[in-house]
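Please, structure for the following, as C-alpha cells.
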Amino acid sequence: MMRFHYAGTYDGPDSLPRREPLPAGAVAFREPESAGAMGLIGNGLALAIFAVLYGLLVMRCGMAAFGYEAFLYGSLLTLLTMVPHEFIHALCFRGDVYMYQALSKGLLFVVGTEDMTLAHFCLMSLLPATVLGLIPYLACMIVPNLTTLGVFGAMALASAAGDFLNVFNAVTQMPRGALTFLSGFHSYWYLPGSDEGRGA
C-alpha cells in the first residue's frame, strides 16, 4: 500500500532516498549526469511539444486559441494542477513515496525506490499527462470552443516532458523482464536473479 511522505525542500541529489545496496547486476540508465543538463533537455522538449500542440489548436479553433482569457486561465489551471499531477504519480506506487519541492526553481516531484516493471513504470509516468493533459486537449479538439481546456491540455502535456523522457529511456534501454527503480538522482534497471555482481 502506498505510503506518502512530504520530504520538504529539495537540496540536491544527496537529499533523495537511496536504495542500498543496489540489486545485483543493476545498470544505471544512460541519461544526463546533472539536473542542469536534464532541465535543459526537458525544457527544450517541452517547448517543442507545446509549439506543435498549440499549432494544431490554432488550426482547429482558429483565432479563439489566441485569446487572452484562454492563455490566462489555461496557465492558472496548469499551476493549480502541479500538486495533483504529483499525487497521481504517487498513487501508482505501492510503497514509500516522497514529495520534494524547490518552488524557486519551479520543481515539484515525487520519488520512490521500489521495483517497477516496464508497464508499471510507464503507467506511473504517463497517467498524470493523460488525465490532466491529453483528455482536456482532446476535448477541445472535439469541441473547438473549449479553448481554455485546449491551452491547458497543451501546457500540461508540455510540462510532462520529463516524464516522456523517462519513458523513452525505459522503453529503449530496459531488456525484456527487467525491473526499474530510482536511487538518489539516477534510475536503474536490473534482471531479477542476475548474478553479474553489484551495479555501480
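Residues 180 and 189 are 4 Å apart (CA to CA). The radius of gyration is 18 Å.
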